[in-house]
Amino acid sequence: MKAKCSIWAAMICGMAGVLCVAYAFCAEPSAGSRNNLNGGNPAAPDAAVDEKDRVSLAVAKDRAQVMHDIYVATLDVMHHRFFRHDSAVVPARAMEDVFSEIQRQSKAEARWISVNTKAMSINHEPKSRFEMRAAEEIAAGKAKFELVEDGYYRRAGAIPLTDGCVSCHEGFFKATSKTPKFAGLVIGVPINGDSVKPD
Asked: Which long-range contacts (CB under 8 A, 24 or more apart) does 45-51 make?
């Protein structure tokens, strides 16, 4: 049991280190490199986020992509190397603890949403209009859906589900579907008033 705890602790510490390095590579560009394609109508600021925690849209997009890649890679490694049927915690659930820690450090949000399979938790049901639209877009085959709203750059990326994932989400005895199945990873990064809409 202690060995398993040590492995989990090492994984989470390693993730935190990788994210710190990734954060350093996504430095804020100079004010002169910012473009305002919102037509002078930037997203409304969120009072709960300090100005020092806001970044330009270009940086938010870079960070969201980096975060998506790291979270997906970590999930994959945890499933293939550390997940065993006798484990008490499913890796996707363990990742939510990582999401919470990263949000505490950076104010960037992350959460899972169900797309075209049964949600494993009521917390994974798409809740906002953005998440509902993202689930529709991902189910239709889009790799990502993004939007600027309420002082955040929001990005939902597709998480392809393998047969092993689907057998758990939809039941071991359900016939194999020919339709690709997905979950979604939603990331929100607070942005400043000089930011622009996504391409």
From this structure: 45/151, 45/192, 45/193, 46/150, 46/151, 46/152, 46/190, 49/107, 49/151, 49/190, 50/107, 51/192
Contacts of 91 (CB under 8 A, 6+ apart): 75, 78, 79, 82, 83
pLDDT at 31: 43
* Ordered DSSP codes for 6-69: HHHHHHHHHHHHHHHHHHHHSPPPPGGG----STT-PPPPPTTS-GGG-B-HHHHHHHHHHHHH
Question: Is the pTM here over 0.90, yes or no?
Answer: no
pLDDT above 60 for 15: no
What are the boundaries of each domain within the chain?
A: 2-27+41-190
Partners of 114 in the beta sheet?
Answer: 183
Confidence of residue 191 (pLDDT cuts 50, 70, 90): very high
State how far the Cα of 149 lies from the Cα of 44, in Å rounded to an integer.
Answer: 8
Helix axes 57-77, 91-106, angle to 10 degrees: 150
Q: How far apart are CA 67 and CA 148, in angstroms?
A: 17
Query: Which single residue is written with the structure tokens 């550390």?
Result: 82
In this structure, are residues 81 and 94 in contact, taking their beta carbons and an 8 Å threshold?
no
Bridge partner residues of 186 (DSSP) = 111, 156
